[in-house]
Amino acid sequence: MTQVEALARYAARAKFDDLSAESRKQLPVHILDSLGCCLAALGAGPVQACREQVAEFGGTGPSTLIGGGKANPIYAAFWHTVLVRYVDFMDNFLAQTETCHTADNFGVALTIADYVGGSGRDLMLGVALGYTVQSRFVDHANFMTRGLDHTAQLAFSHNAAAGRLLGLSEQQIGHAMAMAAVSDASFAVVRAKPLSQWKGLASAQSALGAMNTLFLARRGVEGPLQVIEGPLGIDHLLGMKIDIDWDKQAYEGVTESTIKKYNSMIHTQSAVHCMVELTKQRKIDPNKIVSIEGGCSNSLSTSPAAVFTAWTKSSVPRNRRITACRTCFRLPSSMAR
């Protein structure tokens, strides 16, 4: 049995009763957080361009769109993923060396739950599945360090969640994932400076491709099920063997995801918090801050610690610096290179 086939079986058998009490408690919080991100994105320039694209090519139904209107489920999933991702305020999963935005799975789960007339429990199950599948790939493989973006795993998580909600068979879910994975891999350069608008839209493109293969699989189209371990497959690209025992996985991805307090990179959340607290404790006027310098030190532990120094105006001597968060903000070693 291939990794894709084992994952498809894992997705097809998922039930709401499989979710722990903690997952059931956290899922509504993450769903509301994702909806807030969606509403915040309405009207942004690139988002409006996507809306015009949906209006021209997405048809007139049957899926309801946030912001009004209808579209087919393929373009509705694209639209909702644009919204949840664009403002960069959505939740996040942080592994030892890699990361991902688990909320990239929300738009697909919402769209397909609506498409099938599902309940709130169905939506929660879809979100739980998507979050878990993507985070397990991030935890077990080195996509980004080999040049692939963390949206590459969405080919698996989108189709796992949507295939289960759509009631597809194990075989259909497997083929949907295989077709999407072999065709829609994205490159990490999308996150390199200078940043483009596509950074905030790349996961929506993954949703568009995944939903296209999902409905093709429902019609009997087959894909390369050995896309991970087969010749020149993902294992070959990563230089490692992905070996996830899906029979032993629960559906608890949401309990490992973090909701951002500040609209900044997940790695900077504690540093921003420390700087805010520092201004309160030292009674520093933020308007007098001239610059903030950041750096990394490997001397404090095996995990590099970020050191942030704030320089103020003449009210503080130029040779005096205020150092914040010397040890509380830690970076994965791959981020400090």
Question: Which features characterize this protein?
Answer:
single chain, 337 residues, mainly alpha, 2-methylcitrate dehydratase PrpD, 3-stranded antiparallel β-sheet, two-stranded antiparallel ribbon, 11 helices
Give the end-to-end Cα distance, rounded to a whole number of Å: 38 Å
Number of domains: 2
- What's the average pLDDT? 88
Strand count, sense and closure of the main sheet? 3 strands, antiparallel
Instruction: Tell me the Rg in angstroms.
Output: 21 Å
**Lateral arrangement of strands in the main beta sheet:** 5-6-7
- CATH architecture group name of the largest domain: Orthogonal Bundle
What's the CATH H-level superfamily name of the largest domain?
Answer: 2-methylcitrate dehydratase PrpD
How many H/I helices?
A: 11
Unreliable spans: 298-310, 312-337
Instruction: Give the class from helix and strand content and strand pairing.
Output: mainly alpha
The geometry reads as globular
- Beta fraction of the residues? 5-15%
CATH topology of the largest domain: 2-methylcitrate dehydratase PrpD
Number of strands: 7
Report the order of strands and helices. Answer: HHHEEHEEHHHHHHHEEE
The helicity comes to 40-55%
CATH class of the largest domain: Mainly Alpha
